[in-house]
Amino acid sequence: MKDFTTVLSDFFPGGRLLLKEPLAKYTSLRLGGPADYFLKVRGGDELQKAVSQAHLYKIPLFILGGGTNVLFNDEGFPGLVIKNEMSDIKLIGLKGESLKDGKTGTAINTVYLEVDSGVGVNRLVRYSLDQGLSGLEYFLGQPGTVGGAVWINAHNMDKKRFFGEIVVAATLFNIEKGINKVAQDYFRFGYDKSNLQKTGEIVLSAVCSFRRGNKEKLWKIARETLEYRSRTQPSGYFSAGCIFRNIKKSEAMRLATPQFTLSAGFLIESVGLKGKTIGGASFSPTHANFIVHKGQAKSLDVLKLIDLAREKVFAKYHLRLETEIRIVN
Predict the structure, then answer these.
(1) 161: part of which helix (H) or strand (E)?
(2) What is residue 199's DSSP assignment?
(3) CATH number given to 234-328
(4) Is 227 in the active site?
(5) What pTM, to 2 d.p., does this model score?
(6) Per the residue annotation, which of 21, 46, 201, 242 is the catalytic one?
(7) Residue 166: what pLDDT?
(8) What is the DSSP string of 131-143?
């Protein structure tokens, strides 16, 4: 039997399989040691083939999208990291209503796009806005990929908008089930949650529903959203976005937070950690739920800050903060 390196190199010739590839350059935090094996895939067939071989050889596996909301440790990943670069956006359906008041024909008001899981969320936002399609105008500037957005049910909490709201169906894959086409209710979307976090299935593509809208008005909303993000989130640093999930409403009421805010950033700031530095990493002085650095940090520094925040918040409020980022050990 051939070894794993030989098999994957045969399936993906031309030097596509990389060994001991540093992961830092593929994540927004710019942290993380090397992956034993690293492979970029451009289609669903390639992804299925690589996953199947990893399973056959019992090689640990991680699917990497845009590299946001993820932290690899300094030692790296002892297995195969597959970078998802599937990139198709296809129009697959239209829905309309019959015109009234003596007019004939049908007015198209709903558009369905099938989007590969490797497509960047920001690319999809801009594509939909340029077509005058409403549904993601509050997500301009959002990092990550469609696959990751489905996995975590990406959101704009200021506007109470969730990515899962526009997902009507998806094509999934795992070794046990193979290809599985599912409807929206399969995901059981919640705040920062989807059923995929339990099943471990991989998103190949998602069908997203958009409403026809006014292109200029949609772009205006999107630009205002982006400006708000720029004002309230740190810039000029490496970060993974928000580190912790916001707390539940019941917890905010128990703690009597100001205006019953659910903000994890408020709790971190309230225990004196805003701006706190360990090694080369800090809780941002702009937004305490961001850990930032300028290139001198290690993953261990970030993990120490996470542990410190959990300890101090629990000591003061008897509440355990949950991470929003995915820590890959």
Answers:
(1) strand 161-162
(2) H
(3) 3.90.78.10
(4) no
(5) 0.92
(6) 242
(7) 98
(8) TTEES-GGGTT--
